[in-house]
Amino acid sequence: MRLVFSGAVHEVTGSKHYLEAAGKKVLVDCGMEQGKDLFENRDIPAAASQVDYVLLTHAHIDHSGLIPLLYAQGFRGPVYCTEATMELCDIMLKDSAHIQEAEAEWKNRKGKRAGHGAVEPLYTTEQAAAVMEQFIPCQYDQIIQVCDGISIRFIDAGHLLGSASIEVWATEGEVTKKLVFSGDIGNINQPIIDDPNYITEADYVIMESTYGDRVHGERPDYVGDLGEVIQRTLDRGGNVVIPSFAVGRTQEILYFIREIKERGLVQGHDGFEVYVDSPLAVEATTIFDRNIPGCYDDEAKALIRQGISPIKFEGLKVSISSNDSIAINTDMTPKVIISASGMCDAGRIRHHLKHNLWRPESTVLFVGYQSVGTLGRNLVDGATEVKLFGEEIAVKAEIATLIGISGHADSEGLMKWIGAFEKKPQRVFIVHGEDGVTDILAERIRKETGLDAVAPYTGWEYDLITNECLAAPQAVRIVKPGISAAARKVSEVFQRLEAAGKRLLSVIAHNEHGANSDLEKFTDEINRLCDKWDR
């Protein structure tokens, strides 16, 4: 009986854990890495065709996004998850496949002109659709015997609709060990979905650590703060443009706006319209509406009993086609526009930014984390001009942020979750956190609970019967190592500088066919800048 760590170790994304027990090969999550990779991930010690089962904690792409690739490589076993997770994966994996195909098509158009070979998509929409036939929906709190020697149970993790921690009982001979995979542990008091449930017994715990080094602080008044942004923007005659993640965050914003309208917090603009301009978000909202009994919290269920939808209201409009999306900006009536992607790097949100960033009466409101190097991060950091669709756009709109929204438990929430175990686990493995954060949380757990907590690297392997480490290969860094917390601010500023450098290269490429006089002037300006800073 062995456990091997492959993804999301000393990194936040790409969750993938390999369990070999009772003669079976099991993957817990099979996620895609997003953003900058820090370490080379080692492959699982089995071919895709040899994997018997996949256990999936939730639908987010960093946990589910490589399941179609696993299928393309030969996997034909069942995928166990909650029913809501299955429904969300059905739209999210197909959407991800469409992105893979579009990116491959774009690269091939460029590559053909440069004489390069063809690029294949990571996986296709057909493969994403085919693997969905292998999903098996499960209910919360029910023990399911997967095979002789392996049973599982899904426990509500309170992170996303259908998200779960997974309890696994594995038996070999006369020895049974219970493993708990936390998945992503939710923040408390989130709208719509329940708070995370707690588990009291385990031999081994595999635990996330996304916010293992920070505290969210007092819960902000999301409804009041959002209402104020909408009020002042509509008073100016502008639009509130909200870049939002299609699944989870969009539905939370709709929940807040429903309450804003119910309480009359925005005055003088009765019936103001709210557009959801993202086909994926529209589909996800429909799935949220279908999964009331097993996933909604008491407050949301109380609204349902009164005949009130928690995420629908008068004035809500959805945009499906491209023509629907275009029409939003031809109507000059002040409104709220919610669109993807959440970091403004792709999708319809870029069109809404093009039409609103230059308008001082409008507001762009960020409601989620913005990665370094993204357009969203540049705007949050104070960019005064951005380029969209080859056009320079002056940033005159108000740039605002709704502070505090997070789907992840903070360090106190994580400590509460691990502290609920009444039976002392033999070992706690800390995963799914930034390099350094995993170590911080492991150290805190050791000090405050006395548990044996370790933050493994990719490729580390453990015997679960003897609790021995069988292999601990040295991690191979593919980018520069992390830095201390004290120097993190300096690092972030340097990352902004790197992002600016990449943008400069992009601007140079865009000017390839410019007039010689302009190119000479541009070159002289760059050289003067280099002379100043070349130390």
Summarize the structure.
With 535 residues, the chain is of the alpha/beta class.
Question: What is the secondary structure topology, with strand pairs?
Answer:
Blueprint: E1 2-7, E2 16-21, E3 24-30, E4 53-55, H1 61-64, H2 67-72, E5 79-82, H3 83-114, H4 125-132, E6 135-138, E7 144-147, E8 150-156, E9 164-172, E10 175-181, E11 204-208, H5 222-236, E12 240-243, H6 249-263, E13 274-277, H7 279-290, H8 292-295, H9 298-305, E14 316-318, H10 322-330, E15 336-339, H11 349-356, E16 363-366, H12 375-380, E17 385-388, E18 391-394, E19 398-401, H13 411-419, E20 427-431, H14 437-449, E21 453-454, E22 461-463, E23 468-471, H15 488-510, H16 516-533
Parallel strand pairs: 3-4, 4-5, 5-6, 10-11, 11-20, 12-15, 12-16, 13-14, 13-15, 16-19, 20-21
Antiparallel strand pairs: 1-2, 1-22, 2-3, 7-8, 8-9, 9-10, 17-18, 22-23
Helix pairs in contact: 3-4, 3-7, 5-6
Can you tell me about this structure?
This protein has three domains: 279 residues, Metallo-beta-lactamase, Chain A, CATH 3.60.15.10; 180 residues, Rossmann fold, CATH 3.40.50.10890; 46 residues. It has 16 helices and 23 strands. A hairpin with a 4-residue loop joins strand 22 and strand 23. The chain is an alpha/beta fold and 535 residues long.
| Structural class determined from secondary elements | alpha/beta
Count structural domains.
Answer: 3
Globally, the shape reads: globular
| CATH 4th-level superfamily of the largest domain | Ribonuclease Z/Hydroxyacylglutathione hydrolase-like
Supply the number of helical segments. 16
The parts where pLDDT drops under 50 for at least 5 residues are: 480-491
Name the CATH architecture of the largest domain. Answer: 4-Layer Sandwich
Strand content: 15-25%
The radius of gyration computed from the alpha-carbon positions, rounded to a whole number of angstroms, is: 24 Å
Distance between the termini: 56 Å
Largest sheet: 8 strands, mixed
Q: Helical amount among residues, as a percent range?
A: 25-40%
